[in-house]
Amino acid sequence: MASSRYDDLDELLTRILITRQRPDWRRRLLDSAGPVTSMSSLRALRAVELRERAGQAASIGDVAEFLAVDHSTASRTVSAIVVAGLLTKQPAADDQRRTVLTLTDVGRKTLAQVTERRREMVTEVVADWPDSDVDTLVSLLQRLATDLERGVSQ
């Protein structure tokens, strides 16, 4: 049976995911990251940053949802990041059962460095592409991500 375009799409998405999980990719990304030693730590920091940018307090539950892991896994990840001095944990003023996470200055600086490195790595990959192709890819991937997220939540 010949593969369909949907099989091809699924295979390409898998290839991209696997490539970004390879040790060489992670090493290149995290080498300059100082205390950030794992992709899950980086993603947890990104979750807190995104909540802060939206003017919302971040919690361990928010990190768990962003990482697509259970609360206990997110809690262990957050604890390691707090020990590394990249986040602070404080009880929420309105609910003592809830913990509010905040990026420290070191956490912000580290995240900015990794973000710049990530941007450089992606730029290298598409350096020979016309800007219009990159713009089209971004638009289509945004649409795909939105539709995938919607499909998962149904």
Q: Could you give a short description of this structure?
A:
The protein is mostly helical. Helices cover 68% and strands 6% of the residues. It has a two-stranded antiparallel sheet with strand order 1-2.
Task: Walk me through the topology.
Layout: H1 5-21, H2 23-30, H3 39-53, H4 60-67, H5 71-83, E1 87-91, E2 99-103, H6 105-125, H7 131-153
Antiparallel strand pairs: 1-2
Helix pairs in contact: 3-4, 3-5, 3-6, 4-5
Domain HTH marR-type: 6-146
Organism: Mycolicibacterium thermoresistibile
Protein name: MarR family transcriptional regulator
Describe this structure in words.
This protein is mainly alpha-helical. The chain has a domain at 32-120: Winged helix-like DNA-binding domain superfamily/Winged helix DNA-binding domain (Arc Repressor Mutant, subunit A, Orthogonal Bundle). The protein is 68% helix and 6% strand. The chain is built from seven helices and two strands. It has helices at residues 5-21, 23-30, 39-53, 60-67, 71-83, 105-125, 131-153, and strands spanning 87-91, 99-103. It has a two-stranded antiparallel sheet. It is globular, with a radius of gyration of 18 Å.
